[in-house]
Amino acid sequence: MMMTSAENLAVFQSLSDLTGEMREAAQGSEWDRLAGLERRCAALVAQLESAEAVRLPPDMQRQKVELIHKILADDAAIREYTEPWIRQVQALLGTASRSRCVRQAYESGAWNF
């Protein structure tokens, strides 16, 4: 698919807007909202990936670079908010998994000596 320069820049602007909303959702621990926004973001990234490379005029290239810097800054902030929560979920899942393994071993008689 071929994009015009304006379309390409518009997609980057949309990504920037979405990552800003994602940062706000993460900051507010709105995990369902964050997941929905992430799906929309992934669709835009897929759109860029499927498009042919576009050569932007210098002024639009500067705007694109500024948008990319904002997207990356928002991504870093999102990670700051989500990583502690992800570690908590992983710890809970790990504990549940270990408990299930112990229960299964006990119920199967594997601990009978």
Task: Walk me through what this model shows.
The chain is an all-alpha fold and 113 residues long. It has 3 helices and no strands. The protein is elongated. The relative contact order is 0.14. The mean pLDDT is 86.
Sketch the topology as an H/E string, one letter per element: HHH
What structural class do you assign from the helix and strand content?
A: mainly alpha
Pick out the low-confidence regions: none
Helix content: over 70%
Strand element count: 0
Distance between the termini: 67 Å
Largest sheet: none
Key traits:
113 residues, mainly alpha, elongated, single chain, 0% strand
Characterize this entry briefly:
With 113 residues, the protein is mostly helical.
Q: Can you lay out the helices and strands and say which pair or pack?
A:
Blueprint: H1 5-27, H2 31-50, H3 58-107
Helix pairs in contact: 1-2, 1-3
